[in-house]
Every structure is written in structure tokens, then in C-alpha cells.
UniProtKB/TrEMBL annotation:
GO terms for molecular function: oxidoreductase activity. Keywords: Oxidoreductase. It comes from Albimonas donghaensis. InterPro entries: FAD-linked_oxidoreductase-like. The keyword Oxidoreductase applies. This is Methylenetetrahydrofolate reductase (NADPH).
Amino acid sequence: MSRVIDFLARRRAVSPSSPSAAPAEQAGFLRGFSVEVMPRTAAKIARFADLLPRGTRVYIAHIDGTPIEDMVSTARRIAGEGFEVMPHFPARSIPSRAALADWIDRYQGEAGVTSALLLGGGVSEPRGDFHCSMQLMETGLFDRAGFRRLHVAGHPEGNTDIDPDGSDRNVMAALRWKQAFAERSDAEMALATQFVFEAAPVVDWAARLRAAGVNLPIHVGVAGPAKLQTLIRYALACGVGPSVKVLQKRAMDLTRLALPFTPDEVLADLAAARAADPDLQIAQVHFFPLGGIDKTAEYAADRAERGVVRYA
């Protein structure tokens, strides 16, 4: 895998404007992308069917304090337009096992949902019985309700909330547990990452996972087109790691500061890494539409059709 990272470094140094993966390979990498929305942003979209390919997986972010009624209503509406809906289940925001059972029942009964993203959540202290996604899985409630696709959070650049010492010891132990869970259950599992702005940390992380026996598919989070200032604000708020230096470097170039940022560079590098190592477990792209769902959908559809042909 170090050869792939060296390859990316050489490619950037020799010809930063020429992606090594052919446009067709890049387009193939982007097909089947997923996207994330919140109830309040989804409410601004008249018809998702006018923006996204039918069957696109749409994650619904559950921000702490959002009423479950709003989450279920959003899921029902989007699923009704022909999309696979994957709501977040933030462990630390769920008040009890009974509440978890109620959420699952409502999503399934009212919106036909059978997929979920399980994560710790954005609050530091548990509101009730749960503090991590593993506890949610251990309840067995998702399996009994027929939820077959369970995604969990991935942290290519580390997570200081989980490993305050800067290591990845606790994160890796949790991922090995989740790998074992996937092997002993019928769940179709994958790792959905926070958004990144550089491919190399993801490629390196994938290598470390493989060495540790974790072979869950990786769905790499990237930010959709947005103003640079918007991305920097979100990156700082979300604790995005070392790859944020890509934004900081661009912010120093006054000639590019006012131009909208697109993820062409990181996507081209990820596609090139997959081409260089066909066994790389990076499976697909997950878009965070920080500059607007419509802009991200238009960008993703265009790149999925013709590939990433140039950097922003």
C-alpha cells in the first residue's frame, strides 16, 4: 500500500493537473454515490427525483434535538420518491432502549426503512442508555426488525474524542469488533467516513485496516462544491483532521480564494489509487452537500457521467 501512497505523491509532484485514472475509471468510481441531508435542508427541495438518480442512497443526519417526527417524515417523503433512505442513529442522543425500539419501528412502519447509519453522535455526554454504536448493535433490535444494511462511522484522520492521546488504539479496537459483528451476523456493513480533502490519509488508513483484518467497504466522505469559507467553517466545527491543510493552502492563494471549491482533486486521487490497487476496499463516494444539495447533485451527476477531467 505504501507504493500507492508514493504513487499519489509522485503524481501530484510531476503533473498536478493530470489525473492518472482514465475518465471512464473515475466515472465508474462515482456511480452509485450517496448523499447526506438534514430535515431542514431537505424541506427546501421540491423534488429529490429532479436532482438525484433513482435509487440513490440518501443519509438523513440526525442533529441532536431534532424531533423524531421530523426525521421520520423526511424519511417517508424521500423514500416515497424512490430512494434508499439511511437515517442516522446517534447513540448518545437516544434516551433509552425503548426509544430506540420506537425509532426503529416508526422508520420501518411509516417509511419502509431497512438501513441505518449507527454512530456515537455529536453530544459529549449520553442522554440515556447508550454511548456508542456497538451498544446499539448489541441490542439485536435492528436484526429483529429486518434492518439488513448497517453502516458505521469511519475516521481516516483519527478521532481525538475516542483516542485523546492521538493514537488510534480505541478506534481500531472498535473496528475489529464491528468486523467480527459483520462476520457473525447477516448485516451488510460498511464504513462511512467524515469528509476529507486529501486522498493519501484515506489510502493509508485502508492499508492499516486491511493489516488489522478489517475488510469492511469504505464509503469516503467528500464535501460537494461550496465556497472555501463555508468549507473551512464546517471543517473546524466538525474536527476534520490533517487534510484540512488543503483548504488552508488554497486560502493563502488570493487568486483562488473567491472561486468555488470542488472535490475534483481528492476524487481523482482516490480513483487513481483504486486503479493502482484493485483490492483497495474504498468502495464508493459519499457527498456532504455543504454548498447546497442542488449544486452537489449536479456536480455528482456530471462527474459520474464523464469522470473528473480537471481540477478546480
